[in-house]
């Protein structure tokens, strides 16, 4: 314990004054004996001990009063026998949770982020100008922390925006402690401000935190860690949110009806009727509709729309409802409307006979209008080439989808080209046939390194294409999770049950692939006995679909059925629709291929109607405009084939533009968009349980607070100790009151004098007697 005003503690010596007075009067006490004294001896003997204790207690109280008063004025501080830092400069690492859930509002309308701004600004204002602030936001945890002074930190707090997704608590604590270790001052403190949503905790984070807790215990210079929980009452808040938006159509084609669906969640305890839902395309609102949501449930709302132009478009849905978190009442996705899909068909057994080639049925199914010589435009442009023309075609004009029909093993150079095509985002479809019998092993396509592993290993042929016609085999159910083929016959799980299969290749999910590749292999269609008939797998950024039957009618009657045309078209639309990731979660990189900028600009001296040209890459520049921000230049070199934008912490529409610069005046060639959205977990407003948060804090020796004044008080105690003068003042007042009570109790009560009694000669008495 230390004293702030130690000189005033000398006033405690004033306790000698009542002691001296007591001794002085006791020395003047004299005993006078008189005759009737012996009559009082029993009374004195009974009361002497009580009187002695009373007088001693009264003396102690009178001695204690000046001691308590002196120590109150000296202001004692408890230090727990430690050297306190006092007003020494400190380094304060502030970690701010800037996720969407921090916008949740309480009943008064005050959001978590507004409360944080107000209280944290006041907290920073009380710090010394010598203190150092290290600023970290959870959305920028991978960036270098910013070091600044008090005024700059206050400006950061005032301009703080929270529109980001969940973060990893363990990684955040580790980053904050590492930043504290690099700070300038020896006095270091870490303050983590968050609403501690349950979405930020998982098993991996818990294991990582346990390992880091051991490192903290072994580090004697570890900083003080404090948790400021600003979301203690999040469980009492109700919320309505749009959890997801998806395109149900495999691909978006201009001037064709496309179907979209959104899932709306009601996280409140009351039934919500007639919620207004509004869809919009590229900012143009469509007629609204109403839905009703039971308490604690979700509902789907569908939207059918025809997009007129090719390119990338934003499709959004919004729900009008005043709730705790209005920011999640709108969600959008980016979709690409494809004007024409380039499909290259490699025919492994060409023929001049009608429908005699391997790809004849396939070409008709993909481009029916072109085959019928009608004026309508096909979505798919199918080009058929021989195997010896495949290499040149792939080099000069790479397609969107490559289909190999009964193609024998290819040379190493072509295999590598195909593998590169798939890993770069292309789609490969393989149809079986008798030519594959020449291959000893067709489980992979060589690419050094790595090999392009097919979804399944090729085995022996089951059945006979000639004798099997007398006893055909049947196709089983379509994979219920593969939506494109679920539309072949609505309500029928076996739309292909009437197809006759005479023979098929035995496919075994590839045993040579890695665990990740095995997990990505999916059986889309199987035989009645369970053998895979169509297998799909993702490789790199592309996909491979492997059929166990040929594309023609030699092994089955599938190409002769009416279901064959929509089946192949839905497959192509699904492959082209899944090749690009148009919508990402915040924090994930956006990838924009350069060939997506399909617009052109007039060359110098050209006039409308003349030919157009695209300037070379070094005469073009690219920019990106994040939501609610200005444009940024994107550096692209000659070897780049795509733009990769990693700064996607803000949700919304990111617009990528390409500019030509062949002359002084730049002309906007074209633009495309991507959308970043926040995971729906941020909208559930489900805070971590208090017991779990306490256990988390205990692991890293942290303390949990719910208000800024609690942090200020705890920091004052940690730096300067705990002052106890208030308790001493209360004790002083109590002692003064006790001294008066004891004084009153110890003083003998004096009885009032009795009036003299009337004698016989008293007139009043005489009259009374009369």
What is the C-alpha radius of gyration, as a whole number of Å?
43 Å
Task: List low-confidence stretches.
Answer: 599-612, 764-770
CATH-defined superfamily of the largest domain: Class I glutamine amidotransferase (GATase) domain
Name the CATH class of the largest domain.
Alpha Beta
Structural class: alpha/beta
Kindly give the count of domains: 5
Question: At the third CATH level, what is the topology name of the largest domain?
Answer: Rossmann fold
Any idea what the shape is?
A: elongated
Protein name: Aerotolerance regulator N-terminal domain-containing protein
Organism: Novipirellula artificiosorum
InterPro entries: Aerotolerance_reg_N, Class_I_gatase-like, Double_TM_dom, Ig-like_fold, vWFA_dom_sf
Keywords: Membrane, Transmembrane, Transmembrane helix
Describe this structure in words.
It is a single chain. The protein is an alpha/beta fold. The protein has 17 helices and 36 strands. The strands form 9 sheets. An 8-stranded mixed sheet has the order 17-16-18-19-27-26-25-23. It is elongated. Helix content is 27%, strand content 27%. Residues 599-612 and 764-770 have low confidence and may be disordered. The protein has 5 domains: 2-82 and 723-746, no CATH class; 90-235 and 685-720, von Willebrand factor, type A domain (Rossmann fold, 3-Layer(aba) Sandwich), CATH 3.40.50.410; 238-337, Sandwich (Immunoglobulin-like); 341-577, Class I glutamine amidotransferase (GATase) domain (Rossmann fold, 3-Layer(aba) Sandwich); 584-674, Immunoglobulin-like (Sandwich), CATH 2.60.40. A hairpin with a 6-residue loop joins strand 30 and strand 31.
């Amino acid at each position: 314990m230390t004293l702030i005003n130690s000189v005033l503690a000398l006033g405690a010596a004033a306790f000698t004054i009542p002691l001296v007075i007591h001794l002085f009067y006791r020395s003047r006490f004299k005993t006078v004996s008189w005759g009737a004294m012996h009559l009082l001896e029993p009374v004195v003997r009974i009361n002497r001990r009580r009187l002695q204790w009373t007088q001693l207690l009264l003396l102690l109280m009178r001695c204690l009063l000046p001691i308590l008063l002196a120590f109150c004025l000296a202001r004692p501080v408890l230090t727990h026998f430690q050297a306190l830092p006092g007003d020494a400069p400190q380094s304060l690492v502030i970690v701010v949770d800037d996720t969407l859930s921090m916008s949740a509002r309480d009943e008064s309308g005050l959001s978590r982020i507004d409360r944080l701004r107000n209280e944290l600004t006041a907290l920073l204002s009380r710090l010394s100008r010598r203190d150092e602030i290290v600023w970290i936001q959870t959305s920028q945890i991978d960036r270098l922390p910013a070091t600044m002074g008090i005024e700059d930190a206050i400006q950061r707090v005032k301009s703080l925006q929270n529109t980001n997704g969940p973060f990893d608590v363990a990684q955040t604590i580790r980053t904050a402690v590492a930043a504290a270790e690099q700070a300038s001052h020896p006095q270091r403190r870490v303050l983590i401000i968050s609403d501690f949503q349950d979405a930020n905790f998982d098993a991996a984070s818990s294991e990582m935190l346990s390992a880091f807790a051991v490192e903290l215990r072994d580090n004697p210079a570890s900083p003080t860690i404090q948790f400021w929980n600003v979301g203690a009452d999040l469980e009492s808040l109700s919320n309505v949110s749009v959890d997801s938006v998806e395109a149900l159509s495999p691909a978006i084609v201009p001037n064709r009806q496309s179907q979209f669906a959104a899932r709306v969640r009601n996280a409140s305890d009351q039934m919500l009727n007639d919620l207004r839902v509004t869809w919009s395309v590229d900012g143009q609102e469509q007629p609204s509709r109403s839905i009703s949501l039971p308490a604690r449930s979700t509902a789907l709302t569908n939207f059918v729309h025809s997009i007129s132009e090719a390119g990338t478009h934003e499709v959004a849905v919004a729900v009008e409802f005043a709730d705790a978190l209005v920011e999640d009442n709108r969600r959008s996705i980016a979709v690409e409307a494809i004007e024409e899909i380039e499909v290259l068909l490699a025919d492994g057994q060409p023929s001049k006979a009608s429908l005699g080639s391997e790809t004849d049925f396939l070409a008709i199914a993909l481009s029916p209008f072109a085959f019928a010589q009608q004026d309508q435009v096909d979505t798919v442009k199918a080009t058929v080439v021989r195997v010896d023309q495949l290499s040149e075609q792939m080099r000069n004009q790479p397609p969107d989808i490559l289909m190999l029909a009964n193609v024998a093993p290819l040379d190493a150079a072509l295999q590598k080209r195909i593998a590169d095509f798939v890993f770069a985002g292309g789609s490969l479809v393989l149809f079986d046939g008798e030519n594959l019998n020449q291959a000893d092993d067709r489980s992979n396509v060589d690419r050094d390194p790595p090999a392009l592993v097919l979804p399944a290993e090729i085995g022996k042929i089951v059945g006979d294409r000639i004798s099997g016609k007398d006893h055909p085999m049947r196709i089983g159910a379509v994979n219920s999770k593969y939506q494109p083929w679920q539309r072949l016959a609505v309500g029928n799980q076996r739309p292909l049950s009437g197809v006759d299969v005479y023979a098929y290749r035995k496919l075994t999910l590839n045993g040579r692939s890695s665990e990740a590749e095995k997990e990505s292999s999916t059986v889309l269609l199987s035989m009645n006995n369970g053998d895979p008939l169509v297998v799909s797998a993702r490789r790199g950024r592309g996909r491979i679909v492997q059929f166990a039957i040929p594309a023609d009618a030699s092994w089955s009657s599938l190409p002769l059925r009416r279901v064959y045309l929509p089946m192949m078209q839905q497959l192509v639309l699904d492959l082209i629709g899944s090749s690009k990731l148009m919508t990402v979660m915040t924090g994930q990189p956006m990838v924009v291929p350069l060939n997506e900028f399909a617009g052109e600009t007039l060359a110098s001296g050209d006039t409308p109607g003349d030919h157009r040209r695209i300037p070379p890459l070094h005469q073009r520049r690219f920019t990106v405009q994040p939501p609610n921000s200005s444009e940024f230049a994107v550096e692209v070199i000659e070897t780049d084939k795509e733009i990769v934008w990693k700064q996607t912490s803000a949700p919304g529409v990111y617009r990528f533009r390409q500019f030509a610069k062949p002359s002084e005046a730049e002309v906007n060639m074209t633009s495309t968009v991507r959308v970043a959205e926040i995971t729906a977990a941020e909208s559930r407003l489900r805070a971590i349980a208090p017991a779990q948060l306490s256990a988390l804090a205990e692991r890293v020796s942290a303390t949990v607070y719910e208000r800024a004044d609690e942090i200020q008080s705890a920091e004052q105690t940690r730096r300067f100790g705990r002052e106890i003068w208030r308790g001493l003042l209360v004790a002083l007042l109590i002692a003064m009151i006790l001294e008066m009570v004891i004084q009153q109790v110890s003083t003998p009560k004096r009885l009032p004098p009795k009036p003299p009694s009337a004698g016989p000669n008293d007139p009043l008495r005489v009259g009374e007697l009369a």
